[in-house]
Amino acid sequence: MNQFLQATEFAYHRYQILLGPRYGIRWLRTFSLRHEASNNDRLAAIISPFLPETRELSDSEHPFSGYPFVRQYDSMLIEPPIYLNAMLTDFRVAGGAVRVRHFDDVSQLQQLAEPVIFNCTGLGARALFNDQDLTPAKGQLTFLLPQPEVNYMMATDDQLYMFPRTDGILLGGTFEKDEWSLSVNEAAKARVLQGHAKLFDGFRRCQRAALDFQRLWNESESFGV
Ligand SMILES: Cc1cc2nc3c(=O)[nH]c(=O)nc-3n(C[C@H](O)[C@H](O)[C@H](O)COP(=O)(O)OP(=O)(O)OC[C@H]3O[C@@H](n4cnc5c(N)ncnc54)[C@H](O)[C@@H]3O)c2cc1C
User: Fold this and answer.
1) How is 140-174 classified by DSSP, letter by letter?
2) CA 133 – CA 113 distance, rounded (Å)
3) Residues with a CB atom less than 6 Å from ligand 1
4) Which residue of 36, 47, 129, 188 lies most exposed, with the fewest beta carbons within 10 A?
5) DSSP string, 186-224
6) How far apart are the CA of 43 and the centre of ligand 1, in A?
7) Of 92, 115, 134, which one is at a domain's C-terminal end?
8) Residue 78's pLDDT is what?
9) For residue 120, how far is its CA from the centre of ligand 1 (angstroms)?
């Protein structure tokens, strides 16, 4: 837990100095929707300093219907296509070079001239190091066209989440243990699309929005609009 907290604190400070369009990192309001009260309050309390504005919302403060427990917090969204390209550019500017090649077995690694090797071969490490403990867990994302007006993220306790990226609205999520296939799981895609359609079709006006609307309406009348 100590190591986890140290990593969290380091990441929290480190990513704040990378905020902005160049690295594709920005603060965003996030909503966590649950059917039952959270049973991990200890972890929530420990990481709450890294999630500003954390608060349980009352029913009248949010538009999500069907989820009795809604928590808000602010978090940083990192857009991988932007972030990874920026990292690669920084690496090259600093003098790094990228060479693409395949390693058939460990002996080829041992022939490298470099004194230090980081093994980042992901699932490929299973064959490369004959590590049968490595097993896949397949995840799949579904994208809608970009909608810049969507300015929040949300995740539910029934495996739905939505991140508004600049390259599209990202919808998840799926988790298929021991699944090697890289092809699209059409049933999972349908569940994710139908689940989000139901959730967003079910939006109701919340008290704060209704009050804002009433205030704007009164102002527009007093200006004779
Ligand atoms: C649906 C989904 C959504 C995700 N969303 C996010 C997100 O929003 N943010 C986030 O931070 N993370 C996200 N992740 C997790 C993220 O994708 C992984 O943590 C990350 O890709 C792991 O990176 P890696 O470089 O360790 O491994 P990989 O990305 O698996 O890269 C391994 C590389 O090694 C190469 N390789 C393998 N074997 C060999 C060999 N023998 N010789 C040479 N090369 C080899 C492969 O070709 C590959 O390029 C998501 C994952 C999924 C499935």
Assistant:
1) --EEEPP-TT--EEEEETTS-EEEEETTEEEEE--
2) 29
3) 80, 102-103, 120-122, 124, 128, 139-141
4) 36
5) HHHHHHHHHHHHHHHHT----HHHHHHHHHHHHHHHHTT
6) 27
7) 134
8) 97
9) 8
Which domain CATH number covers 48? Answer: 3.30.9.10
Residue 67 inside a domain? The answer is yes
Find the domain containing 109 and state its range: 103-134
What 155-160 contacts at long range (C-beta under 8 Å, 24+ apart), as own/partner pairs, is 155/30, 155/31, 155/32, 155/33, 156/32, 156/33, 156/34, 156/67, 156/199, 157/33, 157/34, 157/35, 157/36, 158/35, 158/195, 159/195, 160/192, 160/195, 160/196, 160/199
Report yes or no on 77 lying in a domain.
Answer: yes
Confidence (pTM): 0.86
Let me know if residue 39 belongs to a domain: yes
For ligand 1, atom 43, the nearest C-alpha belongs to: 102
Is there a single domain that holds both residue 118 and residue 155? no
**Are residues 160 and 142 located together in one domain of the fold?**
yes
Are residues 79 and 141 located together in one domain of the fold?
yes
On whether both 39 and 74 belong to a single domain, the answer is yes
